[in-house]
Backbone:
């Protein structure tokens, strides 16, 4: 479980977070990300459309590794597995969710935003964690501060990350990748430009990291 989750985080320096509005848009987002070199992506599970879209994406892009994000209830785990998710992520963890994640057949990247939360997950065997919400919870300084007391934990900071902030996180010994949606966001007042998404994805793919 821990090894599989770590291997996922090491596939690409950035794990894009897709929010699904409609299937056609999600297909174009995923195509642009893959073309830009980011095949490991997380689809935020919010509502039925997200699950249906995941089924379509998984079929359309067998070369991609598409996970289900924003898991907050145990019931969502089976739904995500049925939809073809390759991995699962959560913004945080509850005792029930930890038990279900331990039993899950898929790699699970659980969310933590404090030393205590990270330690509780470590006790249950997790080594690859999301640091969420990364910027609001303390940013790169906070993640760096966890490396001393918790040297065997590796983080994927997510939440409020952009290209510049990604560089700071990826310079840390205990960060393998970052998550974010900055490469997918249209400029204010504009519709999404998929050529721009691909360009930003390619820049993100080129980010150096220590892991
Ligand atoms: C989210 O909160 O939806 C994801 O973690 C992505 O965060 P971001 O949109 O701030 O990159």
Residues:
């Amino acid at each position: 479980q821990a090894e599989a989750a770590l291997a996922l985080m090491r596939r690409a320096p950035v794990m894009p977070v897709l929010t699904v509005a409609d299937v056609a848009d999600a297909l174009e987002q995923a195509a642009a990300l893959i073309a830009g070199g980011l095949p490991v992506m997380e689809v935020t599970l919010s509502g039925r459309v997200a699950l249906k879209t995941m089924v379509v994406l998984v079929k359309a892009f067998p070369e991609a590794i598409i996970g289900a994000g924003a898991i907050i209830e145990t019931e969502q785990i089976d739904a995500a597995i049925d939809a073809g998710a390759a991995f699962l992520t959560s913004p945080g963890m509850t005792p029930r969710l930890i038990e279900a994640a331990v039993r899950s057949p898929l790699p699970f990247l659980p969310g933590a935003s404090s030393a205590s939360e990270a330690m509780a997950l470590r006790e249950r065997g997790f080594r690859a964690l999301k640091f969420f919400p990364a910027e609001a919870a303390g940013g790169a300084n906070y993640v760096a501060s966890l490396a001393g007391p918790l040297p065997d934990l590796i983080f994927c900071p997510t939440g409020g990350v952009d290209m510049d902030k990604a560089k700071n996180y990826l310079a840390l010994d205990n960060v393998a990748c970052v998550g974010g949606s900055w490469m997918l966001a249209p400029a204010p007042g504009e519709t999404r430009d998929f050529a721009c998404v691909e360009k930003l994805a390619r820049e993100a793919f080129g980010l150096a990291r220590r892991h």
